[in-house]
Amino acid sequence: MTLRLGLLGAMCGLLCGCGNLPEPYPPPAQRPFFAAPAEAVRILNMADADAERHFVQDISAELEGNTWRWAGKRPTIRLHPNSIQKLIYSIDFAIADSTFQQTGPVTLSLLVNDHLLGRTRYASPGRRRVEKPVPAEWLRANEDVTLAAEIDKLWTPPQQGGTPLGFILIALGLEEQSLEQPGVGRK
Amino acid sequence: MKALAALAGAAFTVAACYSLGAILAARLGARLRRDEKFPLAFILGAALLHLAIFAVLAAHIAYKPVLLALLAGCVAAAVVTGDWRLPAPMSGQTPLPRPIHYLFCAIAGAFTVLYLFNAWAPEISPDGSSYHLSLVALYMRSHGFKPVVTEVYSTLSAGVDMLFVPAFAIGRHSAAALTHFAFLIALALAVLSYGRRIGQPLAGAAAALLVYLSPVVGIDGTSAYNDVAVAAIVFSVFYWVQIWDSQREGQILIAIGLLAGYCYAAKYTAAVMLFYALGFVAWRTRRIGPAVVVAACALVMAAPWIVKDWIYIGNPLAPFANRYFQNPNIHVSFERNWTAYLRTYGMKNLWTLPLEVTVSGETTAGLLGPVFLAAPLALLALRFRNGRRLLVPCALILATYLGNVGTRFLIPSLPFIALAMALALEAAAPLLILLVAIHAVASWPAYLQKYTNAWALQGIPYKAALRIIPEERYLNDHFEYRWARMIEDHVPPGARVLVRTVVATAYTSRDVLVGYEGAFNEEMEDLLNVGWDPSSQPRKQWTYSFPERRMHRLRVIQTGTTKIPEGQWDVHEMRFFRAGVELPRLPEWRLQARPNPWGVQMAFDNSEATRWRSWETLHPGMSIEVDFGREQPVDQVRVELSDIDWTVRMRVETLDANRLWTPLPAREELHQKQSDGSVRRAAGYELHAHGVDYLLLKDADFGAKEIAADPASWGMTRLVYDSGASLYKVNPSEVKP
Predict the structure, then answer these.
(1) Closest Cβ–Cβ partner in A13, A24, A30 for B590
(2) List of chain B residues with pLDDT < 50
(3) To 5 degrees, how large is the angle CA B196–CA B198–CA B201?
(4) B310-316, long-range: CB < 8 A, 24+ apart
(5) Backbone dihedral angles phi then psi of residue B131, each to the nearest 5 degrees
(6) How far apart are CA B35 and CA B87, in angstroms?
(7) C-beta atoms of A40 and B682 within 8 A
(8) What is the pLDDT of residues B472-518, one digit of tens each?
(9) Looking at beta carbons, which residues of chain A come within 8 Å of B324?
(10) Using CB atoms and an 8 Å cut-off, which of residues 627-646 of chain B contact chain A?
(11) A94 burial class (0-12, 13-18, 19+ CB within 10 angstroms)?
């Protein structure tokens, strides 16, 4: 008797549970497409969660040490800044001891939309940060901008089939020139 | 004035409880001693008053005059009938030796001052200033119950919180905490009285102090919580059972049943006391009839809460058993994650629990006090009949503890443990007295702070209690309060605010959705996650191509498994193609999903921010089904999944002429895809579309950094930043395509 009552209770419970299930739904109103907006002017850190979305070429998919990536011959990124006035090209990079031993002094060319912004020769390995103002006429409002840094000599791996390496890239991007930064252009 | 109102609110509520309990106790023929009448009548009356207030809220007549009239009516009835009076003292009781009496009184007095001022000070305890009193405040604003599907804690039985309603109506937040403090007093008095009843007053007094001085009991019992009240109710069930056993007055079974039912109404885990009461009564009478009386009375107390959850939530046992009582309001995954956390509080080794809950208390939120390391001494009480009687309900209550290892969940078992310890040690009275003295020293805030940073009282805030320090200034020292005021000041009435972690919602009248506290909230939070977290974005596209087939119904079955409990099936979009052209989604289509049928439209809305989620651990057999409403040629199905869905595998099936589901011979391909549009703006659009126009994010919240970096990309504006939190508004004009 008790068992039957228990079973009856359990069945009622399950039936009540099932009773909550809704009828099938029709398709909902279709949502509009939202075009990707211009981003705030930014420096793209190689560790940023969305960094890979901005890569165009020659930047490793592997994030090393949680902060940097190997760059190839001409690492390039694409940004979509919401401003084109008073922008500064900014790159944080390093020339590795290990590659420098093979390549010797290297020259790095900085490019904005394929315009040459500057070219510098580095006669020693080490970390560098370079900032240079970008001429506004090289940029167009509401359009993508490509930023690149091209190295003249690549390190070639001793074993066949290995990937040639350029330099260590930590961050690359644009920043807005503040009133306190009139003389930007340091190396 | 606020201080007086708080006292008045609590005093009036307590008086009404006592009155109702005294009237019923007299009608039941219970012969209560002078010292036990207040605690037992108060707790019994609390059960009755809780039911009356439930009725008031259900009838939507919760106006202050109605509540005042209810309280006044209870008190007046007790005065008129004379039941208010305490019985004459009984002769022949053995008093405690004077030195011990004075020592114990001094200790109890000091802690009573500590507790009174803490309960009286503005209420800012974590749960008290959030869900306990925010629900009370909401019910008062609505003049009755309101379905609150976005607050999972509203589904818990709230038998003690019902008493906070009239107290709050009169004296606001502190009145509720003071009402809970009355239960602490009643509990200590009940333990004291029980010792006297069984002829062991020293054991009773020592046990009462062991309970009363315990740090977690002190802070919980002086906050708008319910654990100490639950302990008092649980102990009173035991107490009334013992009274019935000595008097064998059948009507006392009514009190036992009501209180056992009130255990369920106060806290689900305490419902085990019903089994205790039924078992004891059946064992002692060898008859089923008396147990039926107990069960019927218990049902009177418990049923309203079961029915309320059934009506509002669709699950009579909410927030549990959602797998069996499927409903759109509480996700199975929430229940699993929540209960899993409560079973460990993040502790890797549960063997450290005894030390944690007695000495440290920093992980499990509170400590019982180091003297409870000696709790195994309670087992020595098994030598005595009285000890065995205590340890049976103790074992039952303790059995529920491993479901939530927070220290305060030990409070209901504490009176039994303390009494059993005291009985075991009564023969060594000096040792017992020393134990109490050590407990007093170790529990006093100044000494407590020397060995733990656990949740505990910090001192005597008499200036705040007396409002010499204005309430606003005192509360402003707490971030949770400042965030609540930020919401109150910047969000218009009626608007909804999504937050990811708790704020002092009892201090705002706005509709605050805490991220994990409801299915809807979790879905809104998920929109944010999809916006900032690439692994949650639609980056995997599975394509199933097959020779063109005309079909009426088609379903995609999930066949993969996962070892990760958090692993889910997340379908951003499901699309159907014929000859490379997507089929337009027609109104006659009918969509179903198992599980979570309520969210299926999210897989067919063309939004990059929404996704249908299983909201339970990935397992084979989950499905999404489409009825095209007519014969429809199809040759390809595309399913867009979140990037993190590594273990999901699917099979496409169609319903054949024999009404059997038949797998389609599909060639499957997986492509990684990148979003072309703005997922973030789509998330902002969805928040607005779901009526959530405000968002409060603390700096450490997931996604806070990403939104703060560029709120415009989400279609949001930051309204204000204060105390480490930002309040954003979704701009409808900016989330238009």
Answers:
(1) A24
(2) none
(3) 35
(4) B310/A16, B312/B145, B312/B147, B312/B148, B312/B149, B312/B155, B313/B147, B313/B149, B313/B155, B314/A20, B315/A17, B315/A20, B315/B155, B316/A16
(5) -75, -35
(6) 9
(7) no
(8) 999 999 999 999 999 999 999 999 999 998 899 999 999 999 999 99
(9) 13-14, 17
(10) 627
(11) middle
Residue A95, sorted as left (phi over 0), alpha (psi -120 to 50) or beta, turns out to be beta
Q: For residues B29 and B39, give the distance between their C-alpha atoms in angstroms, rounded to a whole number.
A: 17
* pLDDT value of position B710: 86
Which residues in chain B (478-497) have CB-CB distances under 8 A to chain A? none
DSSP string, chain A: -HHHHHHHHHHHHHHHHHTTPPPPBPP-PPPPP-BPPPBPS-EEETTSTTGGGGEEEEE-SSPBTTTBEEEEEEEEEEE-BS--SSEEEEEEEEE-HHHHHHH-SEEEEEEETTEEEEEEEE-S-EEEEEEEEE-GGG--TTS-EEEEEEES--B--SSTTPPPB-EEEEEEEEEEPPTT-TT----
Secondary element (H or E) of residue B613:
strand B612-613
Report the alpha-carbon distance of residue B217 to residue B412 in Å, rounded. Answer: 10
Confidence of residue A12 (pLDDT cuts 50, 70, 90): low
At B232, the amino acid letter reads A
Q: How does the average pLDDT of chain A come out, rounded?
A: 85
What pLDDT shows up at residue A185?
A: 40
A28 closest CB neighbour out of B586, B597, B604 = B604
Q: Does B586 touch chain A (CB under 8 A)?
A: yes
Nearest 5°: the CA angle B672, B676, B681 is 120
CA distance B402 to chain A (A): 26
Tens of pLDDT, residue by residue over A57-115, are 999 988 899 899 999 999 999 998 888 888 999 999 999 999 999 999 999 999 999 99
CA dihedral B139, B142, B144, B147 (to 10 degrees): -80
Give residue for tokens 């805490």. Answer: B514
Cα radius of gyration rounded to whole Å, chain B: 29
Chain A positions contacting chain B at CB under 8 Å are 13-14, 16-18, 20-22, 24-37, 39-40, 42, 49-50, 53
Q: Which of B541, B538, B558, B536 is nearest to B648 (CA)?
A: B558
Q: Is B53 left (phi over 0), alpha (psi -120 to 50) or beta?
A: alpha
Chain B stretch 689-708, residues whose beta carbon is closer than 8 A to a beta carbon of chain A: 706
Exposed, middle or buried, A83 (CB in 10 Å: 0-12/13-18/19+)? middle
CA B276 to each of CA B148, B256, B291, B389: distance values in angstroms, whole numbers, following the listed order? 33, 11, 11, 11
Contact B242, B197 (CB under 8 A): yes
Distance of CA B678 to the CA centre of its chain: 38
Place of tokens 């001429």: A135
| Among B300, B222, B269, CA closest to B50 | B300
Give the pLDDT of residue A50. 78
Which amino acid is residue B163, in one-letter code? L
Determine the distance in angstroms separating the CA of B626 from the nearest CA of chain A, rounded to an integer. 9
What is the band of A5 on the pLDDT scale with cuts at 50, 70, 90? Answer: low
- The pLDDT of residue A181 is 47
Amino acid occupying residue B210: L
Residue from the list A16, A34, A39 with its beta carbon closest to the beta carbon of B737? A34
Q: With beta carbons less than 8 A apart as the criterion, state whether B297 and B256 touch.
A: yes
Q: Give the amino acid at B673.
A: K
Q: Note the pLDDT tens digit of each residue in B293-318.
A: 999 999 999 999 999 999 999 999 99
Q: Are A87 and A176 in contact (CB under 8 A)?
A: yes
Distance CA B84, CA B187 (A): 20
Residue numbers in B near A36 (CB within 8 A): 675-678
3-state secondary structure of B419: helix
